[in-house]
Amino acid sequence: MPPIFPFTAIVGQERMKRALILSAIYPQIGGVLIRGERGTAKSTAARALAALLPEIEVVADCPFSCDPDQPAMWCTECRERAERGEELPRAHRRTRFVDLPVSATEDRVVGTLDIECAIQKGERRFEPGVLAAANRGVLYVDEVNLLDDHVVDLLLDAAAMGVNVVEREGISFSHPARFILIGTMNPEEGDLRPQLLDRFALCVDIHGIHDPAARMAIMERNLAYEADPEGFCAEWALREQALSREIARARQLLSAVRYSQSDLATIATMMSELGVDGHRADLVVLKAARAHAALEKRTRLSDRDILLAAELALPHRLKRHPLQEAEVTLGDLAERLAEAHAQNPIEAGVEEESEGTAEMAGKKKGVPEEPRDEEPLTERAKAMREPALQTVPQWPSEGRWWEGGEEVAIGEDFAPRRLDTPLDRLTRSSGGRRSQTRTDRKRGR
């Protein structure tokens, strides 16, 4: 089998590569949906990402690739073996890349009863599915829009919960299902339902590159790879190893990345101003921003982290008019971010407190205090942390919400209006087929 095309050798498509790297750093962000034309390196990038990820330590003989250092995430078999006092063997292997076919059924995805074992030995045994093979790896779904909606729902549920629970045919079994879900689709072949589309955390719309120089580079690299795959991958090995080390370092730094109340208020205000439905977008932007900060070796969020995260989390969640463009630009998001900063009550409260500190210092020096009629903004900052009381709208005490009409007593007979249609007095040149009519002809039917 020839080596996989290097991830760092892909020309352009920086937004797609950024989304895949952030998902590799923080798989709990959710799935990545890549929408684009044919021949835009969607499948190539997904396969190259799995080859780029570092090796993982697993239980050697476990079909679910359980982590021996995390007993809380063990499958049922590993947990029972540990309770019996058995020592679990360890092994290192590469991250798996599991390709889910479009014709996959529910039994093939979540797992089912092993029929062969039940017939031969009379035992109930669980046969693992695709989710078991994809644990701690990459699950790739090509043409996800052509997959059965119920199967897509199962994949997204497992990716969100991180565990697969199977209770069927008298079997109760659970195993970890933490994987990087990557779905690709061509919008020309149909779209996903909005309910399923929102379940994907990040979404990237990619197009073909129109720059002639970049297209020449694509042809040169593909020809070099086809002529000598091993030699081509060896040329890019140093870049691949450097990026793999950056991903591993960012995974370790992720838990140290902190966010402030001001960051939360900025993200919440920005999503509210954009009219995004639900609250999943807020959480996705925060998680992706933390992953990007860890990638750049920082422990605090910045505006750039929030902007780049929103660029990946909003393309499939924004409400659009029929004639509105589908692209989400950084310029538009930067304007929204500036407006969110201006309306951020946390930052306004901090500025007010700093002004109050300077005012108190001037008062101590004998500077006369100017009268202030404005309400302190620190109360608004406190209100952001406390749930607001919802008021129930009251109907007006006088008048009705309808106009016209008459009030009818209960039980009174309803007198329908009599239908009084005028007689048909027209004279036609032909006889009627289904109703009687006047005609100037001398014969009838």
Main traits of this protein?
two-stranded antiparallel sheet, single chain, 445 residues, 17 helices, alpha/beta, Helicase, Ruva Protein, domain 3, 5-stranded parallel sheet
> What is the count of β-strands?
13
Q: Report the span from N to C terminus.
A: 83 Å
Largest sheet, if any? 5 strands, parallel
Taking Cα atoms only, what radius of gyration do you get, to the nearest Å?
A: 32 Å
Reported by name, the CATH topology of the domain at 256-358 is: Helicase, Ruva Protein, domain 3
- The CATH class of the domain at 256-358 is identified as Mainly Alpha
**Quick check: average pLDDT?**
76
Kindly report the spatial arrangement of strands forming the biggest sheet: 4-7-10-1-11
Detailed description of the structure:
With 445 residues, the protein is an alpha/beta fold. It has a domain at 256-358: Helicase, Ruva Protein, domain 3. It is 42% helix and 12% strand. It has 17 helices and 13 strands. Strand 8 (163-168) and strand 9 (171-176) form a beta hairpin. Helix 9 crosses helix 10 (229-235) and helix 13 packs across helix 14 (303-313). The protein is extended.
